[in-house]
Design brief:
2 strands, 42 helices, mainly alpha, about 950 residues, about 65% helix, rod-shaped
Length: about 950
């Protein structure tokens, strides 16, 4: 710009006069009116370029005096008044403001650079000179400083002038404008920051863009490690953008993103150096300002992807000159990543994908992979060391950012790439150190979704990191292990709740299969992380829920998986209620196993039931009693009875709940006699039709036999005695507890007999059967309709003397048989079969001694009346006179219980009838007569 462009033709004599007047007034040799002197100076400024510097210097003194008075007045009056000078001074400043603004408006290209440079320098000098005064300390915030200077007429005028000049320059020479702003900011920072903040607020986009551009050029010119980070304008750029971030953070983010994209675009040789220096420039800005780091991670990070990393890798060697080498650059990157307050998950995933490329990525540059692994390792190591040295006192922004999106990291644990799993484990371990809930959630995630043993290895690694994170010492305190036990228990509980969600993505049985695998690993003792019985403790805490699932599973697969886990668990010793719940659930699981069509699954499940019930029964007599009751009641009378040959249960009719006695009373006014036929015989409820016949069981006979055998195995497991030293828990020939078998016998009486009276051991006189006829018929009906009852009483008979306690059942069966045989003139196959089975049971339980024990072989060859005589004289009378009592039995040296036949040989009054009948049928039964009465005489 030439000086002649602002010269106005004025007579020489007038110029000399104005010059002398200005010099006299400026040097104060002659007292002149300040307003007139200012007007003279403004005239010289316009007409005489040689006097320009002198005029501007004079204006500096005027503004300096005005600011000095303003500051002094505030310090004197202790107030921030807006009126800080005389009217004459106000008029002078207003005149200068108006004239200078007119100059700029009339000829911005000529005057704007001159006046803006002068006003910026003056503002910088005034801000520095009076900093810390007017009761505003040096440490005051920007808002307080702005309030101070914008209340001063002189500085407010300079700001207005500056703003008008810059608004003109922004369209013609923005770079010169911003350079002047930066140069002044460098010279007078931080006192000049309020000017930058005000100007930047007026032109946010332009100022931000040009500030970055000027800063980049300056950074590129000082492209050495000694000067790069200390470039004169770098701190000024950081300060300016920092002041603008409050109201224009979005503009800053957009400007940074545009600059980053520009650096990756192909360019000419003239800007190649600047494009190469852009990323180091951005990294330096981010290292100096958390705000700029946040701006970079907000937008710039989202533009990065795996395909861009090779291009960045090719530029990386040139970046090292700004940082002093490869190591320093990596350290800076690690430090910045660790300090990211947002976008932490995206950063970690980008580094992880570069370090361990996913399967869908065909090829990644080897240099990128190696560098990414090194940076990722350094990052995790630095965060680990930082937390171990400072604990929870110092925040780690990256971890806090990842914590809010930990669900994106957890799926990495299920990866087939071991390195990806290890990196994810280390990160989650660090998160768990700061927040144990992360460990709980992650453990729950793995328990639910792990489908291979490799996935469970990741869970063990998480447990190891979790325990170690509780203590930095090599030997972890027991209280820390206890804390992690609680966390793992919470994780299992959370996993169980998650499985109940209808939208749960994984098979629901997978959770329990995983728990079973972990329990098996724990039992081997080879997994060091599980030495504290963490999984066992977690299962015990959640045993109630496991029992509920075993009893009422959503599907059979879940039940089998839960049973598999419980099979590896010890019986809890601190809760009777849980033990009973577990026992009841196991019985329910047994009935579920019996319904399985796959024989292998059925047998495997029953074996698990046997082991579970055996352990529970040996530990708790209450659990044994409950299990036996549930097994017997369920198999005999409840909906599962059809599996063992019982009649299928039909839909109940409301009339089935009608009581017999009140209904009989409705039929007449005659008092019902006790045990009179009118009170006991009943063909149905009047008004509801006759009783419906029971439906036949359509289950195949072979299947009923198999199911019955499985039930006997489970009952035997419940009744076994504690194993001898060195004996396996479930050996092929287990020893049976007589007390448990006795419980079975008593339960059969309780469940089958409808009455609690006359259930003792003695057999009464035959006439007494008229009193118990209703009960006897009910018992007989149970044995006819439920074939399993015969198998159960046979089981009791094989373990003498437990059959004695079922005396009432045998008595009822014998009484009904005598009554039926007395009304039949010929053989009935079903009646004969029932008679033989009763006699077999009596003989097996040694309630009938020889020769009466052989009656089962004789009865099929006799007439109906002869059978009646045998049952009355040989069976009933003998048992009436010889009460079936456990006292009749003795235990030998081998532990078996026997009844000595030589001492219990019946008298002739009990065998004569049998003798006479055999003699009458000597042609057919002669061999039996000889064997019973001759050979054994």
């Amino acid at each position: 710009m030439s000086g002649t462009s602002v010269i106005k033709t004025v007579p020489t004599q007038d110029l000399l006069t104005e010059l002398r007047t200005f010099l006299s007034g400026a040097t104060r040799t002659v007292k002149i009116n300040p307003l007139e002197l200012a007007r003279t100076a403004l005239s010289l400024l316009k007409t005489l370029p040689a006097a320009r510097d002198a005029v501007l210097e004079y204006f500096c003194s005027l503004f300096d005096d005005a600011v000095s008075k303003y500051v002094t007045q505030i310090e004197t009056d202790m107030t921030h008044g807006s009126s800080s000078g005389s009217l004459q001074e106000e008029a002078t400043i207003a005149e200068i403001h108006n004239i200078l603004c007119n100059f700029v408006s009339a000829n911005p290209e000529a005057w704007a650079p001159i006046i803006s440079t002068w006003s910026l320098e003056l503002l910088g000098e005034l801000s520095s000179r009076y900093a810390g005064r007017a009761h505003v300390p040096l440490s005051a915030g920007l808002n307080e400083t702005l309030q101070l200077w914008m209340s001063c007429r002189a500085t407010r005028t300079l700001i207005d002038i500056t703003t008008q000049c810059l608004s003109c320059l922004m369209h013609t020479d923005p770079e010169a404008c911003i350079n002047a702003l930066l140069d002044t900011s460098v010279a007078h920072s931080p006192h000049f920051d309020w000017v930058v903040a005000h100007v930047g607020s007026c032109f946010p986009h332009t100022v931000i863009t040009r500030v970055l551009s000027c800063g980049l050029k300056d950074f590129c010119q000082h492209g050495s490690v000694e000067q790069g980070a200390k470039a004169p304008k770098l701190l000024s750029v950081v300060g300016i953008l920092g002041h603008l971030a409050g109201s224009h953070f979005v503009d800053i983010k957009n400007a940074l993103l545009e600059l980053f994209k520009w650096s990756l675009e192909p360019g000419g040789p003239e800007d190649k150096a600047q494009r190469c220096a852009t990323v180091p420039f951005l990294l330096q800005l981010a290292s100096l300002s958390p705000m700029l780091l946040r701006a970079l991670t907000s937008d710039v990070l989202h533009t990065l992807n795996l395909s861009m990393l090779p291009q960045l890798s090719s530029l990386a060697p040139a970046w090292c000159q700004y940082f002093g080498g490869d190591k320093a650059l990596k350290d800076l990157i690690v430090h910045l990543v660790r300090s990211c307050e947002q976008g932490g998950t995206q950063i970690f995933m980008l580094l992880l994908d570069a370090a361990c490329p996913p399967e869908e990525v065909l090829k990644v540059d080897k240099t990128v992979t190696t560098t990414s692994r090194e940076i990722l390792g350094l990052l995790l190591q630095e965060m680990d060391l930082l937390m171990r040295s400072t604990g929870h006192s110092k925040p780690v922004p990256l971890l806090d950012a990842v914590k809010s999106d930990v669900s994106s990291i957890q799926p990495l644990l299920l990866s087939s790439d071991i390195l990806r799993v290890q990196y994810a484990l280390r990160l989650l371990g660090l998160l768990g150190y700061r927040s144990p809930i992360v460990l709980v959630n992650t453990a729950s995630y793995l328990l639910q979704r792990a489908s291979t043993e490799e996935h469970l290895v990741a869970l063990v690694g998480l447990v190891t990191d979790g325990i170690c994170s509780l203590s930095t010492s090599l030997s972890v305190p027991e209280e820390d292990k206890s804390e992690w036990q609680k966390n793992l228990a919470h994780a299992l509980e959370q996993a169980i709740r998650g499985v109940e969600d209808p939208l749960y993505p994984a098979p629901p049985e997978q959770l329990w299969l995983n728990v079973a695998t972990l329990l098996r690993w724990e039992s081997t003792g080879r997994v060091k992380a599980l030495h504290g019985r963490l999984i066992t403790t977690a299962m015990r805490v959640n045993l109630r829920k496991a029992s509920e699932l075993l009893q009422s599973p959503p599907n059979p697969l879940v039940a089998h998986a839960v049973a598999k886990a419980l099979d590896l668990l010890d019986v809890p010793g601190n809760s009777v209620q849980l033990t009973l719940k577990w026992a009841k659930a196991t019985v329910a699981y047994f009935f579920l196993c019996v319904t399985e069509t796959d024989s292998l699954v059925r047998i495997r499940g029953v074996r698990v039931c046997c082991r579970l019930l055996s352990r529970l029964s040996l530990y708790s007599s209450a659990a044994r009693a409950l299990a036996l009751r549930e097994l017997l009641e369920g198999s005999l009378f409840q909906s599962q009875s059809w599996l063992f040959g019982g009649a299928p249960k039909t839909k109940q009719n409301k009339a089935e709940n009608v009581r017999l006695l009140p209904e009989n009373h409705k039929q007449g006014t005659i008092s019902m006699l006790t045990h009179h036929h009118s009170s006991v015989f009943h063909a149905g409820v009047i008004g509801n039709g006759p009783q419906r016949p029971q439906h036949a069981n359509k289950l195949h006979k072979d299947m009923i036999v198999q199911n019955t055998e499985l039930l006997m195995l489970v009952l035997t497991a419940c009744c076994r005695s504690p194993p001898a030293p060195g004996e396996q828990l479930l050996s092929s020939t287990p020893s049976i507890s007589l007390e448990a078998i006795t419980t079975v016998s008593l339960l059969l009486v309780e469940l089958i007999s409808p009455d609690v009276m006359y259930n003792g051991l003695p057999w009464p006189e035959e006439e007494f059967c008229k009193v118990t006829i209703e009960r006897d018929l009910h018992i007989r009906q149970v044995f006819d309709n439920v074939p399993l009852a015969w198998e159960l009483i046979t089981l009791v008979a094989t373990h003498r003397p437990a059959l004695c306690y079922s005396s009432v059942l045998l008595r009822a069966l014998t009484a009904t048989l005598m009554a039926q045989w007395g009304s039949w003139q010929r053989h009935n196959v079903q009646l004969l079969d029932t008679t033989v089975r009763v006699l077999e049971v009596l003989a097996l339980g040694q309630l009938l001694p020889p020769p009466l024990a052989s009656l089962r072989d004789i009865v099929p060859h006799l007439k109906a009346q002869e059978v009646v005589q045998i049952l009355r004289d040989c069976v009933w009378n003998y048992l009436r006179d010889h009460v079936p009592s456990p006292a009749l039995f003795t235990r030998d040296s081998t532990g078996l219980t026997w009844r000595d036949s030589s001492l219990a040989r019946p008298g002739s009054q009990y065998t004569d009838t049998l003798r006479f009948i055999l003699q009458n049928n000597i042609d057919e039964l002669g061999y039996l007569y000889f064997e019973l009465f001759v050979a054994n005489k």
